[in-house]
Amino acid sequence: MPRIIGVIPARYASSRFPGKPLADILGKPMIRWVYENAMSSKLINDVYVATDDERIFNTVKNFGGNVIMTPSEIPTGTDRIAYAVRNIDADIIVNIQGDEPLISGDMIDSAIEPFLKEEDNDIDISTLAVKITDVETLFNPNVVKVVFDKKNFALYFSRSPIPFCRDAQRRDEWLKLGVYYKHIGIYVYKRNSLFKFVNLKTSKLEELEKLEQLRAIENGMRIKVVITDKDTIGVDTFSDIENVVSILKQKTSF
């Protein structure tokens, strides 16, 4: 059985929501929700937070979590993860977004499972997608869409609705004529694939769409897309916290 670790990159600085990882959600900081949900995975051996901020570092330490301090000049969350795991024994590394407080252990395990199957040994990265059921989500540029081949390997990710529906006369016809998938931003890497990825130069498609996973595709890396029936809410602004709280309150326990 490979050794699998989860890493949650967490920065304090954010143009839209400074201090986001420490935002209070029903009495707990958001980073703790993410950490504890990641710990509920049945396949992950250990979870770490990788941060560049002492406030986040101390918060994680105080609730008993594993945390690694990383340099502030590291440009992306993926680079922060690669820095954090360079001296950690792990065969598979899971990049768990620090602003996904509704991510579940089951979802994380679904993304990991392709690496445990012999027939899928040509995978570099795996990720999740969920079927889009409303027009607003389909046309929202903040929601990333993905298309994949018959073996569920990603062909392209975009902020635009893909594939384009030529026969649709109105927006509400798109979902009647085609099937569309929202990308959920969790990434599972083979160790060597993670370090290969962070050493690649930023690609042209990545620069246009502002989606770093396109760098992997442009360089021939294979991304397996696992379809899930569960969705999450990424927290980008303070108003998103209210949506998360509303969902958590609807659950029988939290």
From TrEMBL:
Keyword NADP: no
GO cellular component: cytosol; membrane
Pathway: Nucleotide-sugar biosynthesis; CMP-3-deoxy-D-manno-octulosonate biosynthesis; CMP-3-deoxy-D-manno-octulosonate from 3-deoxy-D-manno-octulosonate and CTP: step 1/1
EC numbers, comma separated: 2.7.7.38
GO biological process, one term: lipopolysaccharide biosynthetic process
Cell compartments where the protein resides: Cytoplasm; Membrane
Catalytic function, reaction form: 3-deoxy-alpha-D-manno-oct-2-ulosonate + CTP = CMP-3-deoxy-beta-D-manno-octulosonate + diphosphate
Family of this protein: Belongs to the KdsB family.
NCBIfam families xref list: kdsB, PRK05450.1-3, PRK05450.1-5, PRK13368.1
Name used for this protein in its record: 3-deoxy-manno-octulosonate cytidylyltransferase
